[in-house]
Amino acid sequence: MAKYWLRVALDVPLAGLFDYYHEEPVAIGTRVLVSFGVRQLIGMVIQTPEQPEYNAEQVKAIRMVLDDVSPMPRDWLALAQFAAQYYHRPLGEVVIPVLPSPLRRPAAYTGKLSKGGPVARLRARQKKSSTPPKRAKAIAAPELTAEQAAALEQIHIDQGARRYLLFGVTGSGKTETYMRVALQVLAQGKQVLFMVPEINLTPQFEHMLRGRLVDEHNQPYRIAVMHSGLAAGKRLENWLQVYEGDANVLLGTRLALFTPMPNLGLIIVDEEHDHSYKQQEGLRYSARDLALWRGQQQQIPVVLGSATPSLESWHHAQQGHYQLLTLSQRAKSVPLPAIELVDTRRAQLEQGYSPQLITALEKTLEAGQQALIFLNRRGYAPVLHCGSCGWLSQCPHCSAYAVLHKGYKHYMQCHHCGGQSPVAKHCPDCGYVDLTPLGKGTQRVEEYLAQRFPQARVLRIDADSTRRKGSAEALFAQVHAGEVDILVGTQMVSKGHDFSRLALVGVLNADTMLFAQDFRAPERLFSQLMQVAGRAGRHQTGARVLVQTDYPEHVVYQALVQQDYPLFAEHQLQQRQQVGLPPFVYLALITAESKQLDQAMAFLRHAKQWAQHPELPGMEHVFVYDAVPLRIMRVANIERAQLLIESPNRLALHAFIRAWAPQLDELAKYYRCKFVLEIDPQDI
Ligand code: ADP
Ligand code: ZN
Ligand code: ZN
C-alpha cells in the first residue's frame, strides 16, 4: 500500500503542521478529517512532502478526504499564510476558523444525520427550490458630479495593484463612485469584493447595490452577502456561490475578506477607518490591511473610502503610496450642516443642558422636524454615590463602576463583566439612605427630555433598547416613519442612517471620549462626531449640530467646526511623529491575564528581560516598554497587564517577535498566566 504523506494545518493552539498519510494523493488545499488525540478534527492539507517530519511508523492515516469543495486555491492559501506569519499565529488558526462553520465541523460529516455532508445537502435543497433570477428593478443612475467624475477618471482598473483613498465628506457620493468602478470591473466579467464595517446597519446600502449593479441588458449582477448575522447554512451557500464564481459581487464585513474569489478584480473598503475591521479575538487581524495585501498579491486595485480616514491611510496618501481622490461637496445641493460649539464653562446649564441646546430643541420641535441627542453612554447613570461618606457603586469583580439602569425593575450593571445586581437601598458603608445617581446615560437623557418637552415623542436607541432580535429595525422604522420627534442614541444611531427630517444634532459628554487615555481617542472622537453630524440635514438646509464641551479651544473641536479633516489629520500626525506613535512607529502588544496582578506583571517583566538577549534578531531596533497594569485592570476577577513593543522598523519588529514570542508560552505557564500577542494593536 502506498503512503502519500500530508502536512495538515489544524485549529489547535500549537505551532506547526501535523503529519498524516493517505493511500492516494491528496491535493494541497483539500480539507481532511483526522484524529487528533481523542478528538476528530477537520484540517487542511498544506504540504505533500516526500517524507514526514515525525517518525513515519507513528504517523496516522487521515480518516476522510473532504472533496465536496474543491481544494482551496493557491492565492487563498498565500493570503492565509501571510496572515498567519504577520500576526504570528499557527496557520491552522487562520485557514480553519475562516471557513463557514459546516465545512469545519466534524459532526457535519460523521454524524448519522449528515449523509453526504453539508454541501451535498445544500445542493439537494437548492435543486428542489431553484427559482429563475429576477429581472432587476433598476435604480436610475444619477449624473456624476464634477468631483465624482474626476475621481472616477483617476481610478485605473487595468493597471495592476493600485491603491486609492477616496476621501469624501458624508453624502458626497462615495457609494455612487464605488458602484461606477465596480460596474467597469463587472463588465469585464470579474468579481468585486465590497467591504463594509457592519452590514446589519446598512440595509439601504445593500438595496442600493442590488438596484444599481446591473449589466447593459438590465440583468442584475449576482450579489452574495456575508456577515456574522447570517445562519450557518446561508453563509455556506453564499460562500460557495462566490467561490464557484456564480456570484459577481461579495458584499460583506471583515470576515468576507477570507472568501476565496477565483476571479477577483477589485476590492472596495468603505469606511476604512472603522474599528470593526479589526478582529478582536482569535486571529486579531485588520481586514483593511489584509485587503491591501490581497490587492497587491492579485495585482488589482483597492479603493479605500472614508469621510475621516484613519491617520495611517491619510499618511500613506500624503506620502504618495495611495492616490488621494477628494469629494469635498455633498452630491445633492444640500450643504453640510453647521457645527457649533457650546462652551459649557460659560453657560448656565439646566441639568447639563445648555440654553442654546434647549432653545434649538424647541425650535426644531416647533418646525415639526426631528432632533437627535447623541451620547455614548447607555444606562441611567454611570455610578451611584453616597453623599454622606463618598461611597461609589464599584463592581465587585472589576476595577470599574456598576451602572444604574432603570426599567421594569431597576438594577446595577457592570459594562465590563456584564454582572448585574440589585440597586442598593442604603449605603453599604454608612447606611445613609439617600443615594444619588451621578452623571447621565441615555435613559436619563430620555427621561429628562420627555419631562421637559411633554408634547414630543422621545425614542431611545441603544444596545439596551434593541436587545431583542429585530427590535432595532422596528425602532429605526419608527424614526423613518416620522413617529419620533427626539431620538436619543449612542453610536448605534450615528452610522449609515439617512434620517430625512433630522434638523438638529446635540452632542453631550463628548469630552469624556476626548480624554480617554488611548492615543487614538481624538481620532475616534473626531470621526464619530463627523459621522453623527453627517446624519443631520441630508435633505434640507439649515440643519445644526451643537456640541457641548468644556474645551472648545481643543484642536479636535476647532477642526470639527471647520469640518476640516486635513487640518485635524495634519495636527495629529505632527504630534504622533513628535512622540513616536503610529504610523511613524510599529507596535505590538502583549496582554497578560491572571488571577493575581503580581503573576501577570512578573510574567511580563520576565518576558521583557528575555527581550534584552543580545542574540535576538532586530533587537537593536526594538524598544520594549515596562510592563503596566491595564487602565481597567480587573475584569470579571481577572487581572490584566500589558507590555508594549515598539520599533521604527517593521521588519526588525517582526524578526524580533518571531524569535522571542514562541518562548513566552512556557514562561506564561510558569506564571500561570494567559497572554495574547497583538500586532498593530488598536486600543492601547
Ligand atoms: P456617501 O457614501 O459619500 O455618504 P452617498 O453615495 O450615499 O454618499 O450619496 C449621498 C446621496 O447623494 C445619496 O442619496 C445618493 O443617491 C446621492 N447621490 C450620489 N451621487 C449623486 C449624483 N451624482 N447626483 C445626485 N445625487 C447623487
Ligand atoms: Zn455612605
Ligand atoms: Zn464588572
From TrEMBL:
<keyword id="KW-0347">Helicase</keyword>
<feature type="binding site">
    <location>
        <position position="427"/>
    </location>
    <ligand>
        <name>Zn(2+) 1</name>
    </ligand>
</feature>
<keyword id="KW-0067">ATP-binding</keyword>
<dbReference type="Pfam" id="PF17764">
    <property type="entry name" value="PriA_3primeBD"/>
</dbReference>
<protein>
    <recommendedName>
        <fullName>Replication restart protein PriA</fullName>
        <ecNumber>5.6.2.4</ecNumber>
    </recommendedName>
</protein>
<keyword id="KW-0862">Zinc</keyword>
<feature type="binding site">
    <location>
        <position position="417"/>
    </location>
    <ligand>
        <name>Zn(2+) 2</name>
    </ligand>
</feature>
<dbReference type="InterPro" id="IPR001650">
    <property type="entry name" value="Helicase_C-like"/>
</dbReference>
<feature type="binding site">
    <location>
        <position position="386"/>
    </location>
    <ligand>
        <name>Zn(2+) 1</name>
    </ligand>
</feature>
<feature type="binding site">
    <location>
        <position position="414"/>
    </location>
    <ligand>
        <name>Zn(2+) 2</name>
    </ligand>
</feature>
<dbReference type="Pfam" id="PF18074">
    <property type="entry name" value="PriA_C"/>
</dbReference>
<dbReference type="InterPro" id="IPR011545">
    <property type="entry name" value="DEAD/DEAH_box_helicase_dom"/>
</dbReference>
<feature type="binding site">
    <location>
        <position position="389"/>
    </location>
    <ligand>
        <name>Zn(2+) 1</name>
    </ligand>
</feature>
<keyword id="KW-0479">Metal-binding</keyword>
<dbReference type="InterPro" id="IPR027417">
    <property type="entry name" value="P-loop_NTPase"/>
</dbReference>
<dbReference type="InterPro" id="IPR014001">
    <property type="entry name" value="Helicase_ATP-bd"/>
</dbReference>
<feature type="binding site">
    <location>
        <position position="398"/>
    </location>
    <ligand>
        <name>Zn(2+) 2</name>
    </ligand>
</feature>
<keyword id="KW-0547">Nucleotide-binding</keyword>
<dbReference type="InterPro" id="IPR042115">
    <property type="entry name" value="PriA_3primeBD_sf"/>
</dbReference>
<feature type="domain" description="Helicase ATP-binding">
    <location>
        <begin position="155"/>
        <end position="327"/>
    </location>
</feature>
<dbReference type="Pfam" id="PF00271">
    <property type="entry name" value="Helicase_C"/>
</dbReference>
<dbReference type="Pfam" id="PF00270">
    <property type="entry name" value="DEAD"/>
</dbReference>
<keyword id="KW-0235">DNA replication</keyword>
<dbReference type="InterPro" id="IPR041222">
    <property type="entry name" value="PriA_3primeBD"/>
</dbReference>
<feature type="binding site">
    <location>
        <position position="395"/>
    </location>
    <ligand>
        <name>Zn(2+) 2</name>
    </ligand>
</feature>
<feature type="binding site">
    <location>
        <position position="430"/>
    </location>
    <ligand>
        <name>Zn(2+) 1</name>
    </ligand>
</feature>
<dbReference type="InterPro" id="IPR005259">
    <property type="entry name" value="PriA"/>
</dbReference>
<comment type="similarity">
    <text>Belongs to the helicase family. PriA subfamily.</text>
</comment>
<keyword id="KW-0238">DNA-binding</keyword>
<keyword id="KW-0639">Primosome</keyword>
<keyword id="KW-0378">Hydrolase</keyword>
<comment type="function">
    <text>Initiates the restart of stalled replication forks, which reloads the replicative helicase on sites other than the origin of replication. Recognizes and binds to abandoned replication forks and remodels them to uncover a helicase loading site. Promotes assembly of the primosome at these replication forks.</text>
</comment>
<dbReference type="InterPro" id="IPR041236">
    <property type="entry name" value="PriA_C"/>
</dbReference>
<comment type="subunit">
    <text>Component of the replication restart primosome.</text>
</comment>
<keyword id="KW-0413">Isomerase</keyword>
